[in-house]
Structure formats: C-alpha cells, structure tokens
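Slide 14.
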Amino acid sequence: MSTGNSWTKSLFVGLWSVLNFCRKLFFNLIFIGLFLLLMMGLLKDNNKIIVPADSALVLKLVGNLVIEKTGVEPFEEFMQQAFEDDNQDNEILLQDVLLTIDNAKQDNRIKTLVLDLHQLNGAGLDKLEQIAQALEGFKESGKPIYAIGDYYTQNQYYLASHADHLYLNPMGYMLFEGYGRFPTYYKSALEKLKAQTHVFKVGTYKSAIEPYIRDDMSDAAKESNQAWLNAMWSQYKESVATARGLSPLNFDEKLDDFMLKFEQAGGDFAQYALQNGWVDALKTREEARQELSSLVGNDDTGMSFKQISYRNYLSIISPAFQSIGNNMDKVGIVVAKGSIMNGKQKAGEIGGDSTAELLRKARIDESIKSVVLYVDSPGGSAFASEIIRQEVENLKAAGKPVVAVMSTYAASGGYWISASADKIIAAPSTITGSIGIFGMFLTFENTLDYLGVHTDGVGTTDFSGFSVAKSLDPKMGQILQRGIEHGYDQFISLVADKRNMTKEHVDTIAQGRVWIGQTAKELGLVDEIGYLHDGIQAAAQLANLSQYDTFYVERTLSEQEIFWKKVFGQASVWMDGSFKSKTQSPFINFVKELTVDLDTAVKFNDPRGVYAFCLDCNL
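Slide 15: predicted structure.
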C-alpha cells in the first residue's frame, strides 16, 4: 500500500512538473515573440513616421469618445490598440481628435480629411458638437472633407453630416432612432428570488431605484425623461439639418411617414437616404478610393490613395507625456470622469480620495493659478462627492479660482462636486440636475428561509446583527429614511447657498429631476453655455492671467510605468490597423447592459450607503 501511494504521488508530481514546464514554455514563447515584435517596431526605419506630401488624413475613430481614458496597464493598452480588441470598449480621447483636426487644418502636407466612422460607438452630444465645430473650422482652410461609409449610426452621421462629400455604399444603411430611455426592471425577478428591497429616497423624480421596485417606468420618470430627451433630440436635428441644408422637419419620426418614403425608394435604405438628402451620392468602396486617388494620388503600394492614419499623425504632433517644466503661469485641468466612488480609483473613474488628491496637487503647485474641474459623471457616493467638493473649497481658500465645466453628464453627485465652483459652464446638451439622494439595499431572509438557512443570536443593542440575512426592523428603516432626508436637505442647502437661491426654490427644481444644459442655465443651475476651452478662458480671467499655459493634473507615474508606456505606445503605432474587430450582436449588447447595471451596483461603496446618482442619465 505504501509503495502504491508513493508511485501514485510520483506520477502526479511528474505530471505536474511536465504541465508546469509546458506552461512556462508557452508563456516564454509568447513573451519572446512579443519582444521581437516590439523591437522590430522600435527599430524599423528608426520608427520614424512621415506625413506624405499632398496626402489624406484618415480620421478613423475606433471606440467611445471620452474626456479621460480609463486607466489600464501599458501592455493591455498596447494589445487593445494594436489589435483593435473589442472596439466597443476602446476609448478615443476627445482632446486628441480636436488637436488632430486643428493641426491638419494648418498642415500644408494634408490635402484632405477623410472621415472613417464605422467603428465610432458611444459619444455624448456635447463631444460630437465640439468635433463638428472643429470640422467646420477645418473647412475654412479650403481643404475638402470626405465621409465614406458602408452605413451610419446616429452618432456617426452627426459628424458625417459636416463633410463636403458624404457617400454611402449602395448596399448601405442608415436610420435615425432618436433618443430614448428604456431601462431593464427587476422587481418581479427579485420577488421570485424572495429578496426584500428596502428603498430610502427623497425626490419625486429620483428614479434611480425604480428598476428594483417596479416593472415599468413611473409616470413622474416618464414626464421628466421625455422633457430632456425631446430637448436633446431637437438640438441634434437642428445641428444636422443646418449642416446638410435641410429642414428639421425632414426627420421621419413616425413609422407611417417613414414607410411612405421608404416605399418610394423601393425598400432600399441607401436609396431612401439619397432621395431624402441625407447623403450626396451612393458609391462603392472602390469608387470612393478612385475619387480620393485622383485627388491625392496613389500610395506606394498602388492599392489605395496616399494617406496617413489618425493614430500615426497624432503620434507626430502630440508628445506622449506632457511636461510642467516651463515657468509660465498655468490653468490646471482636473478631470472627474465616471461614477463617483469612495476611496482611490484608477483614471477614468472618480474616487473620493484619488480625485481630491489631484485637486490638492493643483493647490500645492505654485505654477497653477486657477483650476478647471472637467466633469463627466452621473454621480455616485454622496460621501465621496462631499470629500471632492471640500477640496474645491480648499482651492478657493488658497486664492485659486475654480471653474466647473460639464461634459456629457454632470448630474446628481456630478452636480454636487461642481456646486462650489466660482463659475459653472455646461454644454447645451449636458445632462445635469438630478438633485436628490437615495439609499437602497436588499435583504434575503425569505430566500434563505426557502433554502432552509436561518440566522439567530443575541446582541448588546438593537443595532447588533444588522445583516442582509435578517429582516429590516421598521424602526431601523425610519432611521435610515431620516438620514436620507437630512442628506437631501444638505444637498439643496448647498445648491441654494452657492447659486444664491432659496432652499424652497431649489426644492422646486430639484426633487431628482434631470435637465439639459440649456434649460439648467435658464433655471440658474449653471452660469454659461460652453465647452472646455470656454472654461479655461474663464479660469484664466478669474485669476487675472493674460499669458498662461494649460496642464492636466494627473497621477504621477513611476519611471517604470513611463518606460513601458513609451515602449508599448511606440509599438502599437507601428502596428497601426493590423486587425479588425468583430461587430457585437444585439443579444451580446443586451447582456453587456445588464452587466453594467450589476457592475455599477456592486462597485458602489459609500460608507453610509447614501448615493447621489442619476441612472436616467444613461441613454
């Protein structure tokens, strides 16, 4: 028996050794391959990228437009960029796009701009409008803009509509869906799981918790959502119709109106777009290539027209790392993008501690004379929001003015962190307001009872044993509700104080209701309509700066992080456009939406469980 056990043990040890060796060999081979690939990229032609004379700049935008990229490891970022892995999750920095277009306008080597938008996904209307303005500025140079697509989504078409030549594939497709809010509701599912939902809120329109307590949208939520969705849709129609020289009435929002024109086009989406004036011509890919080749000539391969990609062009005109070495006075820019959570969070998310630390860094830096808080957030933890707002107050106390600039979202907690700024600037389409708070948690005593699991014991106070495995004492519920009411009073008192309003007036425009930027200005919740450049100018004026530079205040990277970012960044530029990603199916997109809902709920970590969050803000 002993010999058998020894033999068996030796067998498993031997097998494990073989498997371990194979595992190490496999990963070492991958590492060697990637290392050789990197070296080839870094050494080839000294890694020098040249802009061909009289060439086309192909503005290929892959992923979601953002004001700050989500922090990822350099190697992971390299893999995403080089292989365009899952383009639905890729991110495009808005400021990079604006810089590229503005530089190309003045670059004599660039003869035309080509919009390749088929992989552009999520984008706030404010971000699209800024790029559209840059495109209009580009056209002032006399250089033409071409938009060439097999199809156009609503976001893609917003930019394409500003092209001088807008082409659609004869087999192409485009359709205006408008804007909508159709959340997923879980009430019946939670009942089947025998989970008990406990909700504490203030605000008639604070509908962030509705998916957990209803199976449909309440009338109050429908009223609020319909109002701001209609206002945003009107902005979209006005802008696109103006760019195309059409009437805003040309949008076929009713199925009957659409079907009439669709029948006239023989059921052909491409013909419908052409007859309706949405595109200039129907052209195949080859026809479009031939037209561009006649304008700028063929490339070295003879396979396409002479061109440079967006990523390669950006690598030439923009340094990989910004420097704060000069002695010029500066306007510091602190980006607050994403859901607001407690503690430290990576770039692309807002942490009470990490974002407050950036504001503190700007306060201590003597070269920074004023600060722009660039907000793109639907809110989150009330506690973390207040920690960030306190740092805004500290900046002001140090004599450094603060201007809050609202991007796509600055609602609920996003408004909370903006409220103390000396000036608030919002885009016309910014989704803001949602002034209200809530608390919610589930208990599973009935679920556990069904499974035969029970909780019992003793404690020294009535608070002992507070758990999701036990039913909630009604008196404890009253305490929690009272705390939420106090939090709401804090919120509206803050807004009243900073916006020079009465609490009673703030309460009438609060109640968790969502507004877009233009309406928020009329209500006095923001001071001006504008974008980041307007906020920078305002911050400079408040600090009496006539000459100044701008500087993004970010977490300081270690020397090792800087090295690997440079290495992988150069390699990904060399491998530009190597592979294509696959289009996601509608079912996969639905599953992703559910995952995002659950992920958001799991990430929330307010120490009191109190949140200022706008779930309705997500289109």
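Speaker note: The longest strand covers residues 165-174.
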